[in-house]
Every structure is written in structure tokens, then in C-alpha cells.
């Protein structure tokens, strides 16, 4: 295992999640536009991940361990300024899943993100928007009647359970904003 690379990826994930939480807790997220601080961090991390992939291939569990493999997935998941790079990484993750070098849910989230960003229906129901009242609702799903079967194959809970989790997160966020107002 490459511990230095693992540490770097985990640091990237930690910084991403810290900033996301700060913006979320302050009520600056979700928003209609891409927050400039978030965008800058995502683009910086994506640039570094490109170098890592060029040097090592996809950083899966065998190379960097489970937590850092998850961190690499998070970086690409948030690389929305570079949809071409995200699409290339779908293929790398498909291969890594086939080799059992990353968790299947990572592929589901990335593939759905790439599909929704390009205006196509998602396949696994991992990507959510908000309705007119600000509550989470899944983006359109291809063949929605069998989405829970596809989700289960990759280790995900049902779409209904996921939507309830997302709704509970939003309830907590709103309660935090009310408390600080």
C-alpha cells in the first residue's frame, strides 16, 4: 500500500467535507450556483487526481486502502467542472469494481452523476435535486421500476430509504439554521 498517497487522498477528502459542512451549516448551501470556494477546491483536487491516475491508475483499495479509495471517489464525484474527466473515470471504476478493488456503490454514484450532468436519466437513483419547497427528490431514473434491484446489486439501500435519509438531513439543516437565527 502507498501510505503517502493514501494520506494525501484522505486529506483532500477531509478538506472537501470540512468546507462542504461549513457552507451547509451556514445556510450558503444548497444554492442555485456553484459556491466559488467549493468550486476552487474541487478543481484543485481534480487536477491532482489526474496526476495520481496518470502515475498509478485508479487508486483502489489495493493501492491506497479503503478510506483513501473512498477519498479518490469523492474527489472525482465532485469534479463537476470537468465532466469529460468524470466520464473517463466511470470506465476506470467499472474495471476496479470488476476486480473488487473498489465498492460498487462508488460506481453507482459516479455513473449517475455523469448521466445527470449530461441531461440523461440516472440508472441507480443516487442523485437528488430539491423540489419547489426545498425537499430532496431524485433526479429522473431510467427504468425506475427496477432501480431497487440495481441498487441492491451494488450494496445500496432502497431508493425510498435513501430519500428518507436525505429528507432527515434537510430537516436537521433547517433546524440548525432556525437555532442560529
Brief digest:
By secondary structure, this protein is mostly helical.
Give a description of the structure.
The protein is mainly alpha-helical. It is built from 8 helices and 2 strands. The protein is globular, with a radius of gyration of 17 Å. The model has no long low-confidence stretch (mean pLDDT 94). Helix 4 (66-77) runs parallel beside helix 6 (104-117) and helix 5 packs antiparallel against helix 6 (104-117). Helix content is 66%, strand content 3%. A two-stranded antiparallel sheet has the order 1-2.
What is the CA-CA span between the terminal residues?
47 Å
User: How big is the Rg?
Assistant: 17 Å
The structure class reads mainly alpha
The proportion of strand residues reads under 5%
Tally of DSSP helical segments: 8
Largest sheet: 2 strands, antiparallel
Q: How many strands appear in the DSSP assignment?
A: 2
Helix content: 55-70%
- Uncertain residue segments: none
Order of helices and strands: HHHHHHEEHH
Shape: globular
Adjacency order of strands in the biggest sheet: 1-2
Give the overall average pLDDT: 94
Which helices and strands appear, and what pairs or packs with what?
Layout: H1 3-25, H2 36-56, H3 61-64, H4 66-77, H5 83-98, H6 104-117, E1 128-130, E2 136-138, H7 147-153, H8 159-180
Antiparallel strand pairs: 1-2
